[in-house]
Amino acid sequence: MDRHCWWRDAVIYQVYVRSFLDSTGDGIGDLAGVRAGLPYLKKLGVDGIWLSPFYPSPQHDHGYDVADYCEVDPVFGDLDEFDRLITAARRLGVKVLLDIVPNHCSSEHRWFQEALAAPPGSRARERFHFADGRGPDGAEPPNNWHAMFGGPAWTRVTEPDGRPGQWYLHMFTPEQPDWNWRDPEVAAEFDRVLRFWLDRGVDGFRIDVAAGLYKHPELPDSPDPEADARTRDSVNPLAWNQPEVHDVWIRWRSLCEEYTARDGEERLLVGEVSVPSAREHAKYVRPGELHQAFFFDLLSAPWNVDAFRKVISEAMADIAGTGSTVTWVLNNHDQVRTVTRYGEPTPEGSGLGAARARAAALLMLALPGAAYIYQGEELGLPEVVDLPDDVLTDPIFRRTGSRARIRDGCRVPLPWSGQASPFGFTSGTEGAKPWLPQPEYFAEYVTDRALADTRSFWHLYRDGLQLRHTLPQLGEGSLRWLDTSPGVLAFVRGDGMVCAVNFGTAPTPAPVPGSPLLTSGPCPPGVLAGSTAAWWISDGTDL
Fold first, then answer.
1. pLDDT, tens digit, 9 for 90 and up, residues 245-267
2. Residues 9, 47, 208, 377: which is the catalytic one?
3. Over 324-362, what HEC string results?
4. Which of 60, 247, 295, 538 is deepest in the core (most CB within 10 A)?
5. How many Å is the Cα radius of gyration of the chain?
6. Which residue, among 323, 436, 310, has the nearest Cα to 27 in the 3D structure?
């Protein structure tokens, strides 16, 4: 494969920096901790890492409220430490992607502070969405939109003269004002930001809220103003997925191509794109736009053979049809962990959820295209569902008072070793506490134990990744569906490599011809048991 296209079938590991590994003893993960963990990730077999935001931030949304896009928050290290991380990753052959947040910034960003200090109609306010309120005294928001994290999408400011004044738009929290991408200074500033990090050696960017950026120019009322808050998704058609957003990705792709032309190494743009259909999704990965965009439909599909086949078929037809490759995900820092999502919502998870999560992992790694793994999924970590209210930090909880779909439970720091918290996560003095408490049952999931147990999630992922690197049938390419028993999904890759998943509803165990290359769980030889997956090489007689 052309080395310029490394991303087409890459497996990228998402590092949630705060929760990966703490090198300083303050209970918060940092860049030096990521560097220390690189050999572990290289041994796992991933091709690259995606780092969650580590920029200076007041941390109202754990770094997704960026105060300075070209610095490192001291809690995570400094630019010298970042450079050491890049050097170490390059030595190991591990790509590094940064999380860039172009839809909004922190209310402490210098440009927003300038806007607050400037009068209505000023140049400084044009970089954001400032508008007069409705009603005779302007006391009502400019429109009826609601923020995704709860409450109105508008906050009124006090003008420099002390009087109540205009309102500004924030589709997440008041601490995260949305940029106005119709202002040319915003586009130029992000060009500068991308070049800053590309010049420091990064291999690309994961783009937060990539379907956002542009809002309807007239900011009209929405027919369903609470849709975003109700679904916790980008569904307001007036605030997301505006046609002008594609101009940004054409511009960014061109900028990345400049760096590719210099040294022959292609830089990757992968977007967080939440849109109604695979067909809409495909527009973002057309030639000359984003290289890839996360395909969330597999993540959200119910554990059902028909649902999985439908979303995979649509992705292959619409997304791969653009010339890009599908970017598969089962989890990330915003979702309930896979073991819990597929099982019962108990602190310890469930055997059913674990079996399904193992089968889904093997399925995802067999699909054509790229895949992203969220940290801890390779350990089979369950969601921590019983965190006390007083430790919760998710702005969704602060804004709504509801624990529904809060994200702290998947962000609890990783357990590395030992029998009690902090489980090797922090190197601090005795009694050092991780920023979110780890439950006692994390002792069952520490990496030391996982590496020693050949039946663990970790070995399933490692073996699957090794086979992806050695089997020519895997990675980029196409698939062909096979006729199967009810409740079984099976497809063939390339020259006779078969992946089959029993969703647990097959009336009888599905036979697996020959010796499987890899299975997701213990099963008798030659049998694909309920809620398991297997890979094998066919001689052609069973296809």
1. 999 999 999 999 999 999 999 99
2. 208
3. CCCEEECCCCCCCCHHHHCCCCCCCCCHHHHHHHHHHHH
4. 295
5. 24
6. 436
